[in-house]
Design brief:
The radius of gyration is 21 Å and the shape is elongated. It has helices spanning 5-14, 19-38, 40-56, 68-79, 83-91, 95-98, 106-112, 115-128, 131-141, 147-154, 158-192. Helix 4 packs across helix 10 (147-154). The protein contains 11 helices and no strands. With 199 residues, the protein is an all-alpha fold.
C-alpha cells in the first residue's frame, strides 16, 4: 500500500529523510508547472525552492492525502517574483499549450489560424490579467488542479476560484475573438465561391 503524502510529511517531522519520497513523487509536476509558466531556465530553481520551503513549513501541512495543491500553491507564490520572466515566456508560448485552457473556440482557432500570432495575442492577454486571475487559470491549465485543488493551493474559497476563472476566460476569449471572426468571414467567403466549371 502506498504511503499518503500526509503520512510522509508527518513522518518527516521526526525522520527528515522521509521527505525525500515526497520530493520524488511530486518534483516533475512542480518542475513542469514552473517550466510552462517561466521557461526551463527558471523551473529548476523554482522546483528546488518549492521543496525547501515545503520542508521548512512541513508542520503547517493540514491535508491528509495529496500534497500537490499545497506544493503548487508554494510554487505559485515563489513565481510572483518572476513576473517579467513569466511575461516573456507567455509571449513565446505555443498556441497548442494555451488550448488546454478550455476556452470554447481556441481549439478550432489553434488548428486553423496563424498559431504564432494567436499565441502572441494570448500571451499579451495573460500578462494583462490580474495576478489572482492568472494564477487560478494557470493552476488549472498547467497544474492540472480542479476547483477544490486551486482553492487549497491559494487558500481562497471555491466560489472565488470560479469567478476568477470565468473572468480570466472571458478576457482570453475577447483576445481571440477577432481571430475567430476573421476566420468565420474567410470561411463564409470560401463557401460562397462559385463551384469550378466542369466544361
Amino acid at each position: 500500500m502506498t504511503t499518503s503524502d500526509g503520512e510522509l510529511i508527518r513522518r518527516s517531522i521526526e525522520q527528515p529523510e522521509a521527505f525525500a519520497a515526497l520530493y520524488d513523487r511530486h518534483e516533475r509536476v512542480i518542475y513542469r508547472y514552473a517550466a510552462r509558466r517561466l521557461g526551463a531556465s527558471e523551473a529548476d530553481d523554482i522546483a528546488s525552492e518549492t521543496f525547501l520551503v515545503a520542508f521548512a513549513r512541513r508542520r503547517d501541512f493540514t491535508g491528509s492525502d495529496d500534497a500537490r495543491s499545497w506544493l503548487l500553491g508554494i510554487a505559485t507564490t515563489l513565481m510572483r517574483r518572476f513576473a517579467r520572466t513569466e511575461a516573456r515566456a507567455w509571449r513565446g508560448m505555443l498556441a497548442s499549450d494555451l488550448a488546454r485552457t478550455d476556452i470554447d473556440q481556441i481549439e478550432a482557432a489553434d488548428s486553423r489560424l496563424d498559431a504564432n500570432r494567436l499565441a502572441r495575442r494570448l500571451g499579451k492577454a495573460l500578462v494583462r490579467l490580474p495576478p489572482g486571475d492568472r494564477d487560478v487559470l494557470l493552476l488549472q491549465t498547467f497544474g492540472d488542479l480542479d476547483y477544490e485543488g486551486i482553492s487549497r493551493a491559494l487558500s481562497i474559497p471555491v466560489g472565488t476560484v470560479r469567478s476568477r476563472l470565468n473572468r480570466a476566460r472571458r478576457k482570453l476569449r475577447a483576445a481571440i475573438e477577432p481571430f475567430s471572426r476573421q476566420e468565420k468571414e474567410q470561411s463564409h467567403g470560401r463557401n460562397l465561391a462559385p463551384a469550378p466549371s466542369t466544361d
